[in-house]
Amino acid sequence: MSAVDAPAFFVSELRLVSRRRRNQAGLAVLAAVPIIIAVAMKVAAPSSSSSSQGPEFFGSITSNGYFVALAALAVEIQLLLPIAVATIAGDSVAGEANQGTLRYLLTVPVDRTRLLAVKFAAIVVGAFVATMTVATAGLLAGWALFGAGPVTLLSGSQASVGGSLLRLLAMCAYLTVCLAALGAIGLFVSTLTEQPMGATIAITIIAVTSWVLGAVPQLDWLHPYLLTNSWTAFGELMRSPIAWEPLRDGLLSAAAYMLIFLSAAWARFTTADVSS
Amino acid sequence: MTAFAVESSGLTKRFGRQVAVDAVDLAVPRGTVYGFLGPNGSGKTTTIRMLLGLIRPTDGGHALLGERMPAGAARVLPKVGALVEGPGFHPYLSGIDNLRRLDAADRTADRKNADARIRSALDRVGLGAAARKRYRAYSLGMRQRLALAAAILAPRDLLILDEPTNGLDPQGTREVRALIAALAAEGSTVLLSTHLLSEVEQICGHVGVMHQGKLVAQSTLADLRAEATPRVRVTTDRPHDAARVLRELGLTDVVTGGVEAAGVLGPIAPEKVVAALVHDGVPVRGFGVVAPDLEELFVGLTGEGFDVSG
Predict the structure, then answer these.
(1) Which of A2, A146, B92, B117 could form a disulfide bond with A65, CB atoms 3.0-4.6 angstroms apart?
(2) Same domain, residue pair B133 and B178
(3) Residue A227 lies in a domain
């Protein structure tokens, strides 16, 4: 019962998630996207000017490899990063139930609240690793093909290489919190079923639906409540001074989602009959 | 310290309108091997799930090793090893890694000797050589052995084993029986759920019989046998005459078949039966008094063989 013993189960959980081939393959896919973006921009660069229209941050890539990481984050937060979180979260409880390992964990005994806490912590770590993988792969690919150097911020001023890396780390942390909100929903969904794949699909649908609703201007009254509404606000960290307000709203929204869905998961799981 | 390792009163589980377990009063004395018998679907596994706190009873309550459940789960479950409804492990982890994970989840486990305990559990179930194989490559028998290893990862005062010899070959079955006997000899109480009567006859001292959610009998195996009335069996070439004599003497449940007549003896002395047969000129080629075997007792209690209860 000592504090030294407490992380053993958490370490075991991280090992379980990280050693799974499916999750390793998923990380490889996440890392491949920025590399593809960098190569595509390099190949296309001579014929297109740096002022060409395109998604956020794309136009700046040819001037500084740093922006490959940002472009990749902007692209992957739309679908691939949510899928990564949905995969881990969907598997968290439903996967254990499906394999019959849940009943053996509970008879060890693992307290049900502790099980949820460990599962959620592993989801958050997974979200951070996924985001950092995208950023790191983007940075390395970008630097290799377009070079490194001081970064011109959206407001026009310059940030040193070190300062820009700190900003990138802050963006990953912000996106991790956003994805943790999706993870909390996922943990709840995962307590409802014994089918991990079904849970993963449901969680992905929730994220995609939120993006779609966010894109319908007629529903602007709904937008502030949407899970994904503030996710793209990570770009505000590229301003000087940083525009904190959208970021604060995003963090508060994520905290509200976590509070609601972690409570729901707890209420559901601590009273559920485990008959799998 | 209470005398019972498992004690329940009025333990009931309803799923909607269906009563899966109906007011079961289990009493498993410490230090015994208790055979928990019943046809498939009679409520054994649901009872075991309630005992372990996996599902909540609709009514009633129980204690394990003197601790009320589920309140005392954190204190008592580390002393309870369990095998519930077949093995359940991560397919892409090796056998030994699966055990490491379960051990890591146990806050009461001693981290320092974890490797030694895991090794010894694997060796005891005969999985030492296959420890590093992935679980998905295991045969059903190996999976069952791994589940047993998980149940004995730490010293246990109580083992709750649901069909532990399922999927094992005859050699494996013998080994597991020997293991259970050894664990009992070391002082563990064993609650053994099974439908294999031979298993019960060989290793159990106490039995409880479930039928349609109810505990229809609970006693020592010896008492259960003593309650059962023996039958006589007459071998003769005139079985119908023999049957008539048996009926006239007051034997019940008289049947004939081939060159035999048989009936339940009741309070009548066997020698009187022989005398009556001879007196009536029935040629007696063979005569025997047979105690019913466990299967007949079982069928008598549950009114059925191994059919699935509805």
Answers:
(1) A146
(2) yes
(3) yes
With an 8 Å Cβ cutoff, are B82 and A12 in contact?
no
Q: Read off the CATH number of the domain in which B17 is found.
A: 3.40.50.300
Q: What are phi and psi of B106, to 5 degrees?
A: -90, 110
Rounded to whole angstroms, how far apart are CA atoms A236 and A39?
Answer: 26
Give the chain A residue whose CA is nearest to the CA of B159: A107
A→B interface, C-beta within 8 Å: 1, 4-6, 8-9, 11-12, 16, 19-21, 99-111, 271, 273-275
Closest CA to B261 of B292, B288, B290, B239: B239
CB B108 within 8 A of CB B78: yes
Q: How many CB contacts within 8 angstroms connect chain A with chain B?
A: 86
Closest-approach residue (CA) in chain A for B56: A273
B193 shares a domain with B143: yes
> Are the Cβ atoms of A99 and B88 closer than 8 angstroms?
yes
In a domain, A274, yes or no: no
Chain A CB contacts of B44 under 8 Å are none
> Which tokens in the block code for residue B12?
């009931």
pLDDT in tens, chain B (310 residues): 678 999 999 999 999 999 999 999 999 999 999 999 988 889 999 999 999 999 999 999 999 999 999 999 999 999 999 999 899 999 999 999 999 999 999 999 888 999 999 999 999 999 999 999 999 999 999 999 999 999 999 999 999 999 998 888 999 899 999 999 999 999 999 999 988 888 888 899 999 999 999 999 899 988 887 777 788 889 998 888 888 998 888 888 888 888 888 888 877 888 888 889 998 888 989 998 887 777 777 777 777 554 444 4
CB B36 within 8 A of CB B191: yes
Residue of A nearest to B14 (CA): A273
Same domain (yes/no): B103, B219: yes
Residue where the block lists tokens 């000899």: B185
Q: Say which of A1, A104, A275 has its CB closest to residue B88.
A: A104
Cβ–Cβ gap A107/B52 under 8 Å: yes
Count: domains in chain A: 1
Domain around A264: 7-269
Q: Which residue of A has its CA nearest to B15?
A: A273
Looking only at the bridges linking them, the beta strands covering B189-194 and B158-162 are parallel
CA A154 – CA B12 distance, rounded (Å): 67
Does residue B151 sit in the same domain as residue B11? yes
Domain hosting residue B237, numbered range = 229-290
Is residue B307, in this structure, part of any structural domain at all? no
Interface pTM, i.e. ipTM: 0.89
Quick one: B71 and B191 in the same domain? yes
Residues in chain B within 8 Å Cβ distance of A105: 102, 105
